[in-house]
Specification:
Order of helices and strands: HHEEHH
CATH architecture of the largest domain: Orthogonal Bundle
Shape: elongated
Number of helices: 4
Number of strands: 2
Largest sheet: 2 strands, antiparallel
Distance between the termini: 55 Å
CATH topology of the largest domain: Multidrug-efflux Transporter Regulator, Chain: A, Domain 2
GO molecular function, one term: DNA binding
InterPro entries: DNA-bd_dom_put_sf (IPR009061), MerR-type_HTH_dom (IPR000551)
Radius of gyration: 21 Å
Protein name: Transcriptional regulator
Strand order of the largest sheet: 1-2
Strand content: 5-15%
CATH class of the largest domain: Mainly Alpha
Pfam families: MerR_1 (PF13411)
Amino acid sequence: MKLFYSTDEVCTHLGIPRTTLEYYLLEFKINIKKAGRSRKFSHKDIEKLQKIVDLIQKQGHTIEGTKEKLKQKAKSQADIEEIVDRLQEIRKSLVILRDGIETN
């Protein structure tokens, strides 16, 4: 499996023309690593772009609607991470309580 993909490979994978890819990169402020004058897309970059393509072309969202949807997803992901952190802290407390009860 490759670590990085060329612009042409990404366009082929996403099924979009190069100009559309360039537009999405500018509009959604996606910074792609460059090797010389060529961009090198990682798997994570391609996943982000696939989400954008799906929202716009398959689900029919506008550019602004897609930006809003991506913000909501990012916020919900942050909420999930916060919940997981809180649950891990609760688990630690419960383990300490259990260990205290078992020793008595």
